Amino acid sequence: MSAAAEAATPNEDILLREDRDGIAWITLNRPNAFNSLSRPLIARLQEELDRMADDPSVRVIVIAGAGRGFCAGHDLREVRGNQNNEPFIKELVGACSNMMQTIVHHPKPVIARVHGIATAAGCQLVASCDLAIAEDGARFATPGVNIGLFCHTPMVALSRNVSRKHAMEMLLTGEMMDADDAVRFGLINRAVPAGKLDEAVMEMAGKIASKSSYTLKVGKRAFYDQLEQPDLKSAYDHASITMVENMAARDAAEGIQAFIDKRQPKWEDR
């Protein structure tokens, strides 16, 4: 499913989508540029995310990359060509930040399927996804410091996924991190052999897709909302209110009754 061509022809879309069994597989398709996030690619990804938000046929989203790597961050040729064009750079950074926030606030769970490299804004994309599975040869970095451009916006997503000292190590050194360390630091969920990557991603996506989409939506929203609360009591208060609302949902009643009856629930997604 995820195996895209090593090179895209001029007529091919820079973003591909394939749906199967409630899972929307989105592939960044700029393989000759290591799927760098050009302004058009950011716009296409934003457009697709917005379209899937209210699509009941989509229960889980997978983001993958074509060719030799997942994503190498911003398109530095595009950046260099517009370096003195402040309105363009401001719009580019703003659009990318908005797209990352869309993933976090999206009602559907989003999984990153990572192979090759995920650097700078590509590493930010991995950190912004709810879950991430990588091949064991994948490497991660926030290398902006090496070219005089600190990874300021990737820092936001990174610092919300890994510990402060590990985040600072990545940001200050710009060095590559292997997949084992990415698991240990909490950037990704697991690393698997390259030949097992699609299987592992689909297994996880399939498990999630089998749940009530309503429950997934309110649960994902509550997870991120409680993290932003100022103290522990506020987090518990917020979670308690959400749990009471969830308890009144049709799928909660069905799920509890199915458990009592020792049968599989029939979700209505409400």
Automatic annotation (TrEMBL):
Keyword terms, alphabetized: Fatty acid metabolism, Lipid metabolism, Transit peptide
Domain of life per record: Bacteria
Family: Belongs to the enoyl-CoA hydratase/isomerase family.
One biological process term in Gene Ontology: fatty acid metabolic process
Keyword Lipid metabolism on entry: yes
Biological function: May play a role in fatty acid biosynthesis and insulin sensitivity.
Native species: Minwuia thermotolerans
Name by which UniProt lists this protein: Enoyl-CoA hydratase domain-containing protein 3, mitochondrial
GO MF, any single term: hydro-lyase activity
Gene3D superfamilies in alphabetical order: 2-enoyl-CoA Hydratase, Chain A, domain 1, Lyase 2-enoyl-coa Hydratase, Chain A, domain 2
UniProt entry tagged with the keyword Lipid metabolism: yes
